[in-house]
Write a structure and sequence with these properties.
The chain is α+β, with helices and mostly antiparallel strands. The protein has 15 helices and 20 strands. The two termini are 44 Å apart. The N terminus is likely disordered.
């Protein structure tokens, strides 16, 4: 009998629930099923039906009442079953946390799984800053210095994703064609890019080969030879992985040829499912998105609770912005995978249209719609989506003058009490503003709000929490627009 089948059989037997543990679960579409909750890890819940069949689904796929039950649930001690064969530990489970931390080079692991501990604690141990915080999810990210090491190599990006305050996954990106040729600085300064060297492809391959070997050697030295598996979703997102397991954690090493070397640390149950997430229904996402629309006393209509992604010092505004929109609408995403799908150039640059065409295919493969239109941002078009809680991806030229105007306007706006006077001030300033289009500053942002009376729009850049919400007039937006708008929808 195959070892995997024995393990699943033992798991199902050892977790047999009593009648009192059975309850009726309802998903977001109203479909009911009687089952017992078996485990919760990384935002995924495993339930066992009365006939013994087990399913692992996203916690957000359940009704609000069931989600609350899952949040409060504590695993009960498994009943004794003398006739059942106990689940054998994995070959690496006898290693203590200190051995794994020695491989990582950080105090990452503990006696309990990462998924059971506060994400903030793990982030602190890795030296990560909070990147984003919404009502249900958060993320922590760092672009480490040259001397930072994790699993035997220097990662260019370390990101920890959390659901309900608990770690859901850890994503590490090593040598890659974006960060190896990144700009001198982040946020607005990322437009000051050096020209990539002619031998860029050779440089990337050499760096990727070195990181791939260093990480594999480090992990194999203690955890043994890896299993070879396929992981992920969609043509662009699915790739070959080397997998090592330890106490409910799976460490996955991947190489996207010519693009990046990456490591993911995920719950073993998620890895067993091949990294395929359960799609949250359109009805549930529609309801959640609508609830995020905030109407303020001054007439501002703004979408709240959109995750932030800091693209760092490289031209990844398109994949970072797409990741934000996807995660907001309940679809797991990673900007590096999206950059691969969009065929970015060295340092992250390429045409916005080409990038979004590739990213769009990836989004549709994930079960979400992706639509576009050619025009400057118009209030009627924006309101149609924002009133439903759906942000709009807008392609523009983010010039120095544009950013100076948006920064100043946003700061002044916080102290406004007389909005009629503010409207007059805007009209005068907009008439004098001579913004021009500079093709070297091509960029995309999320339009997240509008004010019909003052004819302003609110937008959000993928540059960190200081850029969550900035304001500009519609007429000023038209002066720097690339006349392209996109929507990730349901």
């Amino acid at each position: 009998m195959p070892r995997k089948f024995i393990f699943l059989l033992a798991l199902a037997t050892s977790m047999t629930a009593s009648a009192q543990e059975m309850r009726v679960f309802t998903n977001s579409q109203g479909v009911a099923i009687k089952a017992a909750l078996v485990s919760v890890a990384g935002g995924q819940a495993t339930i066992r039906r009365e006939d013994g069949a087990q399913f692992t689904v996203a916690v957000t796929a359940f009704s609000a009442a069931d989600q609350e039950y899952i949040r409060q649930w504590k695993p009960a001690a498994a009943p004794s079953a003398p006739s059942a064969r106990p689940a054998a530990p994995g070959p690496n489970d006898t290693l203590d946390a200190a051995a794994l931390n020695a491989l990582a080079g950080h105090e990452l692991f503990g006696d309990s799984p990462l998924w059971d501990a506060p994400a903030e604690d793990a982030a602190k141990r890795l030296g990560l800053d909070r990147e984003s915080q919404t009502s249900t999810q958060s993320s922590y990210r760092s672009y480490p210095p040259d001397d930072y090491r994790l699993f035997g190599a220097r990662p260019h990006s370390v990101a920890l994703y959390a659901e309900e305050g608990k770690t859901a996954s850890l994503s590490l990106v090593y040598a890659n064609k974006g960060d190896l040729f990144s700009a001198r600085g982040g946020s607005e300064d990322h437009f000051d890019k050096d020209t990539p060297p002619a031998e860029a492809a050779k440089i990337v391959k050499k760096a990727m080969d070195a990181d791939l070997k260093a990480i594999a050697d480090t992990l194999s030295a203690k955890l043994g030879e890896p299993k070879k598996e396929r992981f992920g979703e969609g043509k662009a997102g699915r790739m070959n992985m080397q997998r090592w397991d330890w106490r409910g954690h799976s460490i996955l090493l991947a190489e996207a040829e010519g693009e990046y070397v990456g490591v993911q640390v995920v719950p073993a149950a998620f890895a067993d499912a091949g990294g395929k997430s359960v799609r949250v229904s359109d009805a549930a996402i529609r309801e959640r998105a609508k609830a995020n629309v905030q109407t303020r006393p001054n007439g501002d209509v703004v979408i709240q609770d959109i995750p932030m992604v800091d693209q760092g010092p490289k031209g990844y505004c398109v994949p970072a912005t797409a990741e934000r929109a996807m995660r907001y609408l309940g679809v797991a995403a990673d900007m590096y995978v999206l950059a691969n799908a969009g065929e970015t150039g060295y340092g992250g640059g390429t045409s916005v249209d080409k990038l979004l065409e590739g990213v769009g295919r990836h989004i549709r493969a994930k079960g979400r719609s992706f639509d576009s239109w050619q025009d400057t941002p118009k209030l009627r078009d924006l309101a149609k989506h924002i009133d439903k809680g759906v942000p709009v991806i807008w392609a523009l030229f983010s010039t120095k003058e544009f950013n100076e105007t948006a920064n100043r306007r946003t700061k002044e706006r916080k102290d406004v009490t007389e909005w009629a006077a503010w409207k007059q001030k805007l009209a005068a300033e907009t008439a004098e503003n001579k913004l021009v289009k500079d093709t070297s500053t091509a960029h995309v942002v999320l339009i997240i709000g509008y004010n019909k009376d003052t004819e302003e729009i609110a937008f959000s850049d993928s540059w960190g929490e200081n850029y969550v919400e900035r304001w500009i007039t519609l007429k000023e937006a038209a002066l720097v627009s690339q006349d392209r708008c996109y929507v990730v929808g349901f």
